[in-house]
Amino acid sequence: MKEFQLIEQFFRDKGQKRRDVHLGIGDDCALVQPAENKSIAISCDTLVENIHFLPSMPAHELGYKSVAVNLSDLAAMGADPAWMTLALTLPDVDNDWLQQFSEGLFEAAEYYSVSLIGGDTTRGPRSINITIHGQVPTGKALTRGGAKIGDWIYVTGTLGDSALGLDILLGKQDVDPQFKEFLINRHYHPTPRILAGQALRSLATSAIDLSDGLNSDIAHILKASNVGAVIDVNELPLSTSLVGSVGPEQAINYALTGGEDYELLFTVPEAQRGALDTALIHAGVKFVKIGQICAGDKLRLVSNGEPFELDLKSFEHF
Amino acid sequence: MKEFQLIEQFFRDKGQKRRDVHLGIGDDCALVQPAENKSIAISCDTLVENIHFLPSMPAHELGYKSVAVNLSDLAAMGADPAWMTLALTLPDVDNDWLQQFSEGLFEAAEYYSVSLIGGDTTRGPRSINITIHGQVPTGKALTRGGAKIGDWIYVTGTLGDSALGLDILLGKQDVDPQFKEFLINRHYHPTPRILAGQALRSLATSAIDLSDGLNSDIAHILKASNVGAVIDVNELPLSTSLVGSVGPEQAINYALTGGEDYELLFTVPEAQRGALDTALIHAGVKFVKIGQICAGDKLRLVSNGEPFELDLKSFEHF
């Protein structure tokens, strides 16, 4: 099948066409009209079969997740989702797979008001690359570099569920049936914290999304902000399903190193805590304080006032 | 090696940082500031080893060409190059290869004032995906859809050299040594027609870049503009090296179907021909008239007033 036909059949003129898209798929380039006084936030992520997702992952879930993980990067900047391009590499042309993949992709795109504006398909081992674009008022973007000594450290949602969900899929863990669906769903269907990111624009001093695991992701904030941090492992938000499935130490290990939570970690000064409560409760997002920024350049984990030792195993791509 | 280290070592803070880039590689997203009253042109292209390039292709040339073919899409819209993201999939971490690839990539990026603002590396069969961004005054972009009956059809540069260069590399053709380097260089080192595209903004009614071969690429203009075309195969611009290497019929075949020329094909109304001459000569770009837009929906090839029969073999990705 021709590249053109693939794109035409499954992706062109599908999904929402935003009013700021002058020209979508079908010319040499797409044309979009940026809003005034906004910066554009741009991020790209590749998902490769057997590295970032299992061959058994349902196509619909993969389509959804491919968009969601990119949206999570926009959330971490406080940006409003806008446009994306898709580069799809496939070993063969499987119409059923493509139909389900595109439905999952557009489900996420519609919900978060993203237009698919460009596509490219090539033959090869299955991988999905999305470049996503958002808009954020100039000067208001959240970055990794603004955390100050004394700021409180927060995370949204719960941590570790996705990694346990993956271990269930891999047959490494067996859990009570009542928890299984929730955990696997957290792995397949992450919730990009777009609303939280938007609400944090004028409140947080730094933010990052948790893709590799809290323990390694927070290091980026510490480095970029030139600070250290103390985190109380007993404050980590754990789901009933995680706590009900593994022992307390393993639960903390999943929460700290599991990866693929796609929750936001952010820092807020004491003076903004009241405004934070108001803003995030209004946005309907659960969040919890887990620690504080301090001097130095290291992360210290504590439990009941004592140092907490962690067996490190963070998710790395190479 | 960690993904972060790869990006850090070879791509971060390398090359030009444009003043409109607020934040480059190293956060969840890049942040760029679009100019006022401009649309953003966005395109993405994937190059996969053994499909789009030979395993023997030198890394420097591959780095250069990966950017150049994306710039060619911007040229076809009349856009000014601005920013790009790179998703690199590699079978292993080869420092020499990465060094040369990045040098080639930044050579093209510097020359055309593009900043690399985001990167992602994954392990897998070698492929390069670039999403490129340009800016064009709102309403002035060249598209495929504006060709009118009576408009003249032009192309820049010469056609067919790249395909013959590839056939030389594949051992399918053997040519006189005096032509060999030029032809292979045309395959490895295409010239994106950025200046020509900019000059055509107020002159051309439609434009496309020739990546798959004139014969199949012009069909996109005919379909989008709802017109037909007549092309005189004797007017096709052929290089001395092409004409000196193969017979006249084969030369025309290369020029019509070879692909990877990355020249511009565009249409101009009679009333703008004088302005066109002035603008493109000022831009230092060679161009030639090869035919005319007519009623209908087909491409007719003619030679000395007679229909010209072509043995079709256009480049398709699937």
TrEMBL record, chains A, B:
Protein's UniProt keywords contain Iron-sulfur: no
Amino-acid positions noted as binding substrate in the UniProt annotation, renumbered to this chain: H52, E260, F315
Positions with a binding annotation for Mg(2+) 5: D212
Chain positions recorded as Mg(2+) 2 binding sites: D45, D73
Domain PurM-like C-terminal per the UniProt entry, residue ranges: 148-302
Ranges of residues in domain PurM-like N-terminal: 26-136
Positions of Mg(2+) 1 binding: D45, D120
Top-level lineage group: Bacteria
Keyword Coiled coil applies: no
Chain sites annotated for binding Mg(2+) 3: D28, D73, D209
This protein's UniProt keywords: ATP-binding, Kinase, Magnesium, Metal-binding, Nucleotide-binding, Thiamine biosynthesis, Transferase
CDD domains: ThiL
EC number: 2.7.4.16
InterPro entries (alphabetical): PurM-like_C_dom, PurM-like_C_sf, PurM-like_N, PurM-like_N_sf, ThiL-like
Gene3D superfamilies associated with the record: PurM-like C-terminal domain, PurM-like, N-terminal domain
Residues annotated to bind ATP: G119, D120, R144, S211
Role description: Catalyzes the ATP-dependent phosphorylation of thiamine-monophosphate (TMP) to form thiamine-pyrophosphate (TPP), the active form of vitamin B1.
Family in the record: Belongs to the thiamine-monophosphate kinase family.
Name of this protein: Thiamine-monophosphate kinase
Organism: Shewanella japonica
Species classification: Bacteria, Pseudomonadati, Pseudomonadota, Gammaproteobacteria, Alteromonadales
Gene transcribed to yield this protein: thiL
